[in-house]
Amino acid sequence: MGLIHLIGCTLAITLHVSALDNGLARTPPMGWLSWQRFRCNTDCDNDPLNCISERLYKDMADRLAADGYRDAGYEYVNIDDCWAALQRDPVTLRLVADPKRFPSGIKALADYVHSKGLKLGIYGDMGVYTCGGYPGSKFTLKTDADTFAEWGVDSLKLDGCYSNTDDFTVAYPIMEFYLNRTGRPILYSCSWPAYQSTPDYPRIAEFCNIWRNYDDIDDSWDSVKSIIQFYGDDKGNFSSVAGPGNFNDPDMIIIGDKGLSESQEEVQMAMWAMMAAPLFLSNDLRNVSDRARNLIQNKGAIEINQDPFGIQGKRVQQANGIQIWLRPVVPAGSYAFAILNLNDGGYVSSVSFSLAGLGVPGNDHYYLNEVFSGLYLGGYNVNDTFTVKVDVSSVFFGKFKKWG
């Protein structure tokens, strides 16, 4: 029966004229996601403030609304794994939220989040179980899509544990088809390429709004550096499929947690902006310093991240732990750039370059501003040399805005 079901759905998708025609993620989505900070903590008896529960998500919605995050663009409150009961409803086969930790149910939680001017995201899995061992969606894709829509869910993150990765090329599009058929706009986050050695990125971009393609982020500098290196290497040219409606997802923002220094947090914020990455915070918004909150809400960085061109930045130079990244942004002919010093020791490095030396054509003139502060640093021709000093584990984040 499962095979017949898959064949029927594949035929339906073939006849579906416009894949992923949901109008979402025209710029990288922004919000909050529980996984990195709170993992699969289900011990509400001993840790009621930090367990995966409706209380946690309401608390985060409150903070997003009250502390300036929503106004800065952070709009999704995303539930991750371990929210469900271990068994589906025996009659309807629908997913059920854990009755002790989500006594009001997901629909009521969605209503609460919506009342704050925010959106609710939820987690599922393409396999028979989620990564945490909860019910997966392998044989219930339509039922689960309909359930999420009826609950008022605005985003679905679909993982790939306990599944045959050979099925992904069919199974992920099937879920996209069912989500669209509900008539509710539901942002679709796929883990499709994260489980494959040679992902077909153009096909993935046909059916997913965002997609994870690398390891889960840890609360550490080594983890952040490894992600930056992976995105700089750009194996399979995955940067080429990024654009309005479709973005690569290097995983969560860990600014405000415990693993990064202040300069390393600036590196993550700059690089997630350069990479046109979804900005999903995974921290405890109830206990974030003013400095970290101001960085997360930095207008200049968010403006680069949300640039309407949606072009993913690329690494254009690297040597001796120094990297230079470049990203075309509005107005046309302008560029954001980041100079990274990824060395963990040593002295401040002096880095010099010209836009022409980075491959920028023409003979245009530019205004130069530092992004985080907005400080104006002068005018430059495309052939002029710009020099900046960058400390270890630090970044210089700038924008060359074309004159006229």
List the helices and strands and how they pair.
Elements: H1 2-15, E1 30-33, H2 35-38, H3 54-66, H4 69-72, E2 76-78, H5 105-115, E3 119-125, H6 141-151, E4 155-159, H7 168-181, E5 187-190, H8 201-207, E6 210-212, H9 221-233, E7 247-249, H10 262-274, E8 279-281, H11 290-296, H12 299-305, E9 314-319, E10 322-329, E11 334-341, E12 349-353, E13 365-370, E14 376-381, E15 386-390, E16 394-402
Parallel strand pairs: 1-2, 1-8, 2-3, 3-4, 4-5, 5-6, 6-7
Antiparallel strand pairs: 9-10, 10-11, 11-16, 12-15, 13-14, 13-16
Helix pairs in contact: 1-7, 3-5, 6-7, 7-8, 10-12
Structure overview:
The chain has 404 residues and is α/β, with parallel strands linked by helices. Helices cover 29% and strands 21% of the residues. The chain contains twelve helices and 16 strands. The chain has helices at 2-15, 35-38, 54-66, 69-72, 105-115, 141-151, 168-181, 201-207, 221-233, 262-274, 290-296, 299-305, and strands spanning 30-33, 76-78, 119-125, 155-159, 187-190, 210-212, 247-249, 279-281, 314-319, 322-329, 334-341, 349-353, 365-370, 376-381, 386-390, 394-402. An eight-stranded parallel beta sheet has the order 7-6-5-4-3-2-1-8. A six-stranded antiparallel beta sheet has the order 9-10-11-16-13-14, with helices on one face. A hairpin with a 5-residue loop joins strand 13 (365-370) and strand 14. Mean pLDDT is 95; it is low at 1-18. Keywords: Disulfide bond, Glycoprotein, Glycosidase, Hydrolase, Lipid metabolism, Lysosome, Signal. It is an enzyme of class 3 (hydrolase). InterPro entries: Aldolase_TIM (IPR013785), GH (IPR017853), Glyco_hydro_27 (IPR002241), Glyco_hydro_27/36_CS (IPR000111), Glyco_hydro_b (IPR013780), Melibiase/NAGA_C (IPR035373).
